[in-house]
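Hi everyone, sorry if this is the wrong subforum. Our group has a chain we'd like a structural model of before ordering constructs, and none of us has done structure prediction before. Sequence below.
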Amino acid sequence: MDTKAQTDVAKATRQVIAHSTGTLGYTRGCGINRGLLCTDGIMGVAQEASAYWLIDIVGSLKYEPKVWAEMNQHRLIVCKLEVNLEEGTAVFTATEMPEDEEAPMAIYTQEIPYADFPLEEVTMWLDMESRSHEGEQVLFLPSEY
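Answer:
Right subforum, don't worry. Here is the predicted structure as tokens:
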């Protein structure tokens, strides 16, 4: 992708994040975890950045028994993708939601050797105890809380 196209994708992705202040509905955005519901903002980021793979990473955590058990000890999980734009690599982390000034505990970390995500980082929250959807988890942008 040329530099102009990358800049356009980054701009469109930032706009989705900036305008996501709620959701009109939920989408089952992950084929391997049908219990993962995504808000309009998450789906917009995935579409603009061609990053449905990011939703799949979150959804796949259900199949890591120790990770999933630890995640279920918390209501909100912070899922963060940090990208090295120059190298085209990234690190995905899932941490517990920090309380007060505590440093969050890392629950899961995955190094991604190739990532074309257009921003240096994106943060998502995973609601493990969604009150509106029993047995399902909701992935959303912090601005949609």
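For your construct planning: Residues 83 and 113 are 10 Å apart (CA to CA). Strands lie at 27-28, 36-38, 76-84, 89-96, 106-112, 121-127, 137-140.
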